[in-house]
Amino acid sequence: MTGPATVFDKPTDYIGKSIPRSDASRLLRGQGRYVDDMQLPRMVHAVFLRSPYAHAKINSIDISQAIDLQGVVAIFTGKDIAQHVEPYVGVLSHLPGLRSPAQYPLAVDVARWQGEPVAVVICASRALGEDALEYIKVDYEQIPAVTDTLDAMSSEAPLIHKEYDSNLAWKREVEFGNLEEALAQDDVVVVEKQIKFGRHTGVTLETRATVCDYIPGDEQLIMYYAGQAPHMLQFILAKHLDMLEENVRVVAHDVGGSFGIKVHTYGDEIATAIIAKLLKRPVKFTADRLESFVTDIHARDHVVDAKIGVKKDGTIVGMGFNDFTGIGPFSMYPRTSAIECNQILNLTGAPYQFEHYHAVGNVVFQNKTLMCQYRAVGHPIAMAISDCMIEEAARVIGMDPVKIRKKNLIPDDAYPTKSVTGMRFDDLSHHACLDKLLEIMDYEGLLVDQQKERGNGIYRGIGFVSLVEVTNPSPMFYGVGGAPIASQDGATVRLDAAGALHVSSSVTEQGQGTNAILQQIAADVFGVAIERVKVTTGDTATVPYGGGTWASRGAGIGGEAMLLASHALKEQVLETAAVILQAKPENLDISSGEVISKESGEQKISLGDLAKIVYYRGNELPNDLRPELIATRHYRVTDFPFVFTNGAMAAHVEVDTNTGFIKILHFWAVEDCGRVINPQLVDDQIRGGVVQGIGGALYEECIYDTDGQMQNASMADYLVPMASEMPEITVAHVETYTKTSVLGAKGAGEAGTGGAPAAIMNAVNNALEPLNCGLWQMPMTPERVLKALGKIK
Amino acid sequence: MKAPDFSYEKPTTISDVLALLANNELECQLLAGGQSLMPMMNFRMANPGTLVDISNVSELSGIYERKETIEIGAMVRYRELELSKIIKTHCPLISMVLPYVAHAAIRNRGTIGGSIGLSDPAAELPAVLLVLDGKIEITSEKGIRLEPANTFFKGVYETSCEPDELITKIILPKKQPKQKFGFHEIARRHGDYAMAGVCILQDVDLNVRVAFFGVADRAVRSIAVENLLSGNSYLSGELIKNAQNVLNDIEFEGDMNAGPEAKQHIAKVVLERALKEMKND
Amino acid sequence: MTKTAQINLVVNGEKYFENVPVRMNLADFLRNKLGLTGTHVGCEHGVCGACTIFLDGVTARSCLTLAVQADETEVTTIEGYETDKNASDLIKNFHKRNALQCGYCTPGMLASSIEYIEQGNPPDRKKVKEHISGNYCRCTGYQAIVDAICTTIEERQSR
Hints:
The structure holds three protein chains of three kinds.
Chain A: H1 24-27, E1 44-50, E2 56-62, H2 64-67, E3 72-77, H3 78-82, E4 110-111, E5 117-123, H4 126-133, E6 137-142, H5 149-152, E7 168-176, H6 179-183, E8 188-201, E9 209-215, E10 220-225, H7 230-240, E11 248-251, H8 267-279, E12 283-286, H9 289-295, E13 298-311, E14 316-326, H10 339-347, E15 356-364, H11 379-397, H12 401-408, E16 417-418, E17 424-425, H13 430-441, H14 443-454, E18 459-471, E19 489-495, E20 501-505, H15 514-527, E21 533-537, H16 554-581, E22 588-591, E23 594-597, E24 603-606, H17 607-616, E25 630-635, E26 643-655, E27 662-672, H18 679-699, E28 729-733, H19 751-768, E29 777-778, H20 782-788
Parallel strand pairs in A: 1-12, 8-29, 10-11, 14-15, 20-21, 27-28
Antiparallel strand pairs in A: 1-5, 2-4, 2-6, 3-5, 7-15, 8-13, 9-10, 9-12, 13-14, 16-17, 18-26, 19-20, 19-25, 22-23, 23-24, 26-27
Helix pairs in contact in A: 10-11, 11-19, 15-16, 18-19
Chain B: E1 7-9, H1 14-22, E2 28-31, H2 37-42, E3 50-53, E4 63-65, E5 69-73, H3 78-83, H4 85-90, H5 92-97, H6 104-107, H7 112-118, H8 125-132, E6 135-140, E7 143-148, H9 149-152, E8 153-155, E9 158-159, E10 166-173, E11 180-186, E12 196-202, E13 208-213, E14 220-221, H10 223-229, H11 237-245, H12 260-280
Helix pairs in contact in B: 10-11, 11-12
Chain C: E1 4-11, E2 14-21, H1 26-33, E3 52-55, E4 58-61, E5 73-76, H2 81-84, H3 88-96, H4 106-118, H5 125-131, H6 143-158
Helix pairs in contact in C: 3-6
């Protein structure tokens, strides 16, 4: 057999091993290259004036006092910026009915959320720019704000967009079977709950930042940005700034965390690019933390009325829900703010076999920060609806939560199959993951401990989740709907004259270790020492075209492209080597930087020597041999809309019934992400993801007052998980390779965030069970626990 | 989030500081450790005309043992308090609360004078001063006055210290044999300001002083709880329960983490826990 | 007009004599004036810990310290931890154990770790977590960081 399928015929040198990331070495010595580190000649700073109101008409903006202040180069209002940009609309054709008005980078006539930019000072320094902001006089006329999602849907609610008849942005109903009828049967136990999910945000430690430079002679705009999808932004800038795409270069060097926050179109970043072009000089914008809290996309914010029907033996008959989610005043461009709701409609109950499903999603405009895709889009809600309802149903019928899962999880030998909503599944392993989870957590022991401690007034709970995760998306995710978002990724592999490999890829590095796994794959598949592989990502001028990093696609799609390119280059090199060595290519191989005899392992020629012949002494080669020491391959998922992964997780918690505090004693996660390229990197992705999930479950919430003012928009008041409260997290794997690729890798980046909240809510409600109460609102704060316990009103 | 512009002075003597403070036109703001002032300036919530950095005033440093008291210079940082043998021996309550004050890097810079002068309702040290019956030495060009902690804290970020005055010392009585101390606080995350906390002193004569923080507009004593607990050598379970029940004489104020009712509830819990820990000592 | 002052200080063993706006904080001074961009700014209100540096031997938030306050002091930043803080082993263990992902919290996390180790503290996971609980990391979930610190202490103890 030949071709890439042979890659795993022999033991790997690097794939599957916990090799430390080479680029971490630089970061540990303070040699990162983050956007805010950049200082370019003649660079000025963009400092935005933002609406202090959630909803206000902008009658006038007076810049006359500010413009003459020290350091001020220029001031632009929303109207000024609007003249230089084609507005954008956050809709996709495969989400029929989704509506959102045209949006400009800065508010033009009406500000619709607290923090929306209304003007921008271009200044010699950030400090001087902030001084100048105080001298811009805006005549605002406040309009009643619509903040609560459910209130926004009432007929009396003020309309956020006059051109629409209501504040509804999108509604979708999904129905399979006949849930109402099925649940009405005598032998069916029906459980209903309202579950609330707080609005939270990403809090990347590096705030959003960009330096935009314009080179008039080349008519070129260069945007250095802290982001995830350079090619997407290249298209967007070209389209909306009316430039040729080839004249826009987007560069992402080191990015200080992204988690989906940095994959959207932000008005302040677009405005910075416009201004760089107008002023023909570099302009830097770095959001400060206060700006981040009210302008970075928010996520979640759902109120879900859910129900489930089970038979007495635990068989799930069906489930359904009505979800209301508030997305701010616009649907975010270009991914839209309806995807999270859509994911919930598609994914709820996906690990289980049942026949009846009826789900409704309502996506609602409100005067808060825009909501959009953040790590594990929709997953924490979908998993909590199904798994928290299943455990509640189990409590009602007196069944063990593991047993009810085993009864209903799709059997491991059932694949390929479909979920109730028609999602196509293959290569999943729910039962194997649950078995492995039980093996590593000592469930029986925990149950014994639980009983014993209840006698001492100590309330411990164990909660589970079985989950699916959408990874390796195909064009069916965004491209099909008209979004300029590539689902395929490219990899280029080039041999240099010293025998080293230079590889580039369109997936990007945000710290998750993409560069490291690309390096491992290239080194392994091609046959050089890993130290001899240099990786370039993040620059539209130099990397192949592709989607970047989102939806856990780096390893599965970017990695496969790298495998294919490395294998192609290897074949090309062996062809040339065969001529030089007067051998047959099929009898040669490459190992540790040497062309070797496949049979004897004898070293024939080093890659450096071979490359030197090709590059310097081509005269030694036959004229009809035209060696290409470079190869590019692209890869997209073709057979499935997404490659689903699955996992099982468990939380062990202790609820202090006096204080309402929830302590997570331990957390276990079993993940099947197919082939694990670097176990340590995957384990820490899971852990980091779980901790973000814990954030959503216990701590994080953007608290708004009724006027639409965010009350806790600072690091001191918005609580993110810190070290002291975080549990140890045990991670284990089941490896079911996806058949969609040679590499067999699926994504792993979002499972923790998607699954942990449900496991924790289940554990809390398991702990509270003997006290005859439960808590169905995240974050599960001490105050909410105390209320659930009836200790306070 | 850059601080607004200001003038900067770094005097080396108390009298130079006072001369600056006395000049109204300078709109002076004292800079001690800066761990609270600097964020407020970065937020542009504080906008001083002149920032008076008092870190070079040697008269404000040092922890001294006097006959009946311990004198702590206003510029003494939390870290020095943590390491001080004098504090460990004579002011054990301070040693008890310090590990709960923010984080190491903040304690390395933050000062006792800064914390007392700020009167953050959720800070620990004002409550410590209240139960220890500490005194604050306040100096101005008019002279030196000693203000009891009891009357010093006025409200959120409000004290009896006037703009031309400088906190120069904190004076605390030395620990007496047989005095007992209690402390408990509950915070959402380690090092956060507490949702509720309490400091307790049971004196040699069995008089008890109890001060809460994080629950009202300032650190506050509960006279009802004090009266109930005073005179009892043994803190029985029933007594503790009764003490919880009379904790109604504080005007509880909610914050982002909890409403007034939750605050009151958690205040009762910290009271119970602190008393139980004292009982078990 | 922005007010300025002259300051003298030593950063990572190198002497500097600089004119700075008095309102400039130490983080901005290190990053923008000295080009030592290894110190990161995450919140500018003293909470996230990314800007933590050593000021006269103890950790401090450089966003809560004015550059003028650093006059006549010695500052050590991440660029100097290998040489001036003998932290090669800690850095190696952070690398080996993947105790960083995006790297943005790393300068402050190393500072707090170094201080914990320098103070002679034990490889006790709870204590380590408490000590680094003023340093926010969004990526790792902290476990790897605690591992790296404890391993370093254990290695030093067994030497």
